[in-house]
Give the backbone structure.
Amino acid sequence: MMAAEYGSDDGVIATNDDATSCKACAVSLGYWKDPYLPHVYPAAPDRRPPEINRGFYARTHSIFLLIQKFIQVTKGDCQIVNLGAGFDTLFWRLKSAGHTPVRFIELDFSEVTAKKTHYIQRSKALLQAISDDDYDIKLNRNNLHGFRYKLMSTDLRVLSEVEAKLEESEIDYSLPTAFIAECVLVYMCPTKSSQLLNWIAKKFKSAFFINYEMVNLGDRFGEVMLSNLRSRHCDLQGAAACATLQSQEDRFVQEGWAGAEATDMMGLWERLPRADVSRVMRLEMLDENELLTQLFSHYCITTAWTDTRWTEITL
């Protein structure tokens, strides 16, 4: 699958299972509704601490609201590209809420897309949502082409491969396009992630980027996070860009983006709809708010744009 120079990606691929299990736990406790998640993660989820559940709620809900706004501003005349999408169910949740872009493309390692393709094939609910009477779904072991939804295997570090898979997915470079990356760039060496960001900025007429990632890794809490990930064979090659909120913004501006804004999850937690935040806070008791504050101050969402129209897309 990968060029030998990259070595094993097993540790990074395994983070998808961990993240999906965390989402499944939060959904089972009522943090948000996702009737599609059990179709791609049929196993019973392990119980997670309350701060982890709230963290995944803040992450998932923030990204959903930002993408929802992007679709609304463009009146649906747009594309979404989910980089390293894993078993994410965003396409199905958006469609059920009435937010359907022209095209929704997911890219990930072939090991991940093969499993997801298998789960989609087995699920009537997932298949129905991507079906169209005038368009036959095309699929093989690693890839799936629906009318609007496309699932493609690729290595994001190989630009020629990324471009080929996007064009196979009938990408339209002239349409407003939102990119999503959740803890993806941090696993790439800076040269490769910079090349990817630069290519997107140059290739797409109007691009918007949502990047969820670590930040403030220089303190003791950040060092423990890094150590824990390394023990699971996840080397954060791109950790330098996660040093501060400013460094998260700079990585985009330096690669040709018109602007960027990074906000830690504590700041975003305070911007989420207060009635819903109050609801989720009642789901579980949290003995130490300090744990949640520490966690939220070490993750952030950065939005970046090549078109100043997208500066209005905020929480």
Residues 4-312 form a domain with the Rossmann fold fold (CATH 3.40.50.150). The CA atoms of residues 12 and 234 lie 6 Å apart. The chain has one domain: 4-312.
